[in-house]
Give the backbone structure.
Amino acid sequence: MIKKQIVTVVAVVAVMGYLYLQPVKGLVKPKEERAAPGKQATESPVASKINVAAVSVPAKSAIGANLAGKITSLEDALKKAGSASEKLKLQTELAHEWDNVNQPAPAAFYYMDLAQAKNDFENWFTAGSRFNDAYKFTQDTTMQPAFVSNAIVSFKKAMDLRPADTESKTGLGVAYVNQTSLGITDPEGGSPMQGIMLLREVVGADPDNWNANLNLGQFAMKSGQYQKAVERFKHMIALNSKRSKVEPYFYLAESYKQLGMKKEAIDAYVKCKEMMGDPTMGQTIDNYINELKN
């Protein structure tokens, strides 16, 4: 059941997540923004008000009462926890339960709690990854600044513990680009181009790095560099990897479409549909294909 849910979520993110591909300030700037020196992004005051309680409510609504029941019981137990060890145990269980139902936002806050208590690489890295996922999944602009800010903090902490870790560097690079799309900035810096440079450093050392290539391809799309995006996604598809290739095929199709290469776009859409195995999402892909044929 969980495996099926994960496949469905990936398909939904790939096909319906075009909000994530809006142009990023700093990669593509409208003329009026370029002509406005002195305008500086600042951290959103709303971000500090977003906590696990705020994200748990919509997450429970999304998964339904049956799946939310165990989580609510664990939350009640956490409120009554009498020792630090008991609290850590319950936070761990809650993080895993939210992972099991594919809700990265509340999971991220619990992993961050665990990381703050233990100061270990695994929990800092996982917290950052879940916050990046939460940003990508949600269309709630009041929550996105908190997800991005917390992702940056988490990945920085992870890199302090393991400076050479490429996945942490990838996550931080993604978060740097994401923050400027929201009009905020890390107090210590972190421009979109710094984010891109981090990702390029990763693929320079590891040309087959999946996450770095995926995000560089997506950011190439955001900046209108569709031929570069095509090259990234074709490289990912050619990799001998067990990862789902739904996303690279979908974004490859979209890049071909923007380049006016209709046949290639249709072929990529067909492959994407075959890998989804979901009738509803398959119909959405069929609609995209029909638009190209007409």
